[in-house]
């Protein structure tokens, strides 16, 4: 029997094995207006089953994939009209093919991507519709319950202690922090106090991770409360929203790049310069830009990105600027996709004079102004700064970062070349949160890395770029979630699907 089969190839590029995926997603495949290759009947589309006489199949089979925001996960879907039982696809009619990335699917409105099928010259092959759904077992609700043992001493202080534990449930004022004995999800986990402290007041924090209310009831059976001194103070429910919840709800990620045009990079016309344009390979600036940008662009619907330069003298008067558009258009600094940014970067090198110093604060404040205008969770901004030297305006940059930490914004700094970047590490708040004028940053929003640490020893630039992107982008989902939580912003409901394809019910067969 004739049938149509959709096959998928996953070409994940995982530069370092052992990665833990952010989550798993389930991909659903549909096609509309497929090419009819049968003479006397319409194709019978099928994957795991035959769907008779339709060119608009909705396949039942799902593809479950590990999802990594920080990696470019390439996918290919091929559609065939199966006319026999032969396992050799070369013996069947090819109906079309599409390439995309997993990021393109999840980053599309409502995580639903529509793309035209191609692969047959001169033919319109129809459309493939790819929908992503985050698997529910990667999401959970936490029920926090506080229990206590109490002697006759301090019984009147229970309300006071309850307030303390509600606000800070990982330690026991005024006692010293105690280790948590972990159990598996859905099991009980306890803090224990030394025996000497039990005579005054013993408190136990119980954290239950369950998936539904019935599980909670089962765990709180009367048999569990075998000690008469144990009382339940309270429990609360906290929904855990994921990065993909926000993306699917319509949160757009905006990407801005800022490139260092200071003289320490060397004359661009000489091969020793970090800005030198080798006709056979990209320089470090272009590689860093492409590595990060090609992943982030999947989450920006219009693919238009502001591209800035700093540290150069501009024509015609030779004024020094630390915030100029690479395309030369102050009113509209946006470039079309990664190729547009690279083209504007190449053209700028021919027009401006490399100068200095290396100031970051202007470009940080530039993006912060846009982020400050949309603090409702609908947009999140990522600034990529690529530089070769030691920062000159450290105090001003720290102040700019501390202010930006209150906004929906993250900053990635990539150091290229062989300079010492020790001072730059100070901006990365992984170990010590950055501060300015005695004011601590609300969140850690900066990730700094030197590109040389990711260069492949064999000279494989694709591998180098993948390693760089994986490291600098890994923190972005958590940084976005931390902002949303700090403002109590919940994901928007998923918008209803909208199809530009013909309605399959009205499409003539």
From TrEMBL:
GO MF assignments: calcium-dependent phospholipid binding
One GO term (biological process): cellular response to calcium ion
PROSITE patterns linked to this entry: C2 (PS50004), VWFA (PS50234)
Domain C2 residues, every copy: 1-117
GO annotation, cellular component aspect: plasma membrane
CDD domains: C2A_Copine, vWA_copine_like
VWFA domain mapped to chain residues: 254-480
InterPro entries: C2_dom, C2_domain_sf, Copine, Copine_C, VWF_A, vWFA_dom_sf
Any Pfam family the entry gives: C2
Family annotation (Gene3D superfamilies): C2 domain (2.60.40.150)
The family this protein is said to belong to: Belongs to the copine family.
Protein name from the UniProt record: Copine Va
Protein source organism: Oryzias sinensis (Chinese medaka)
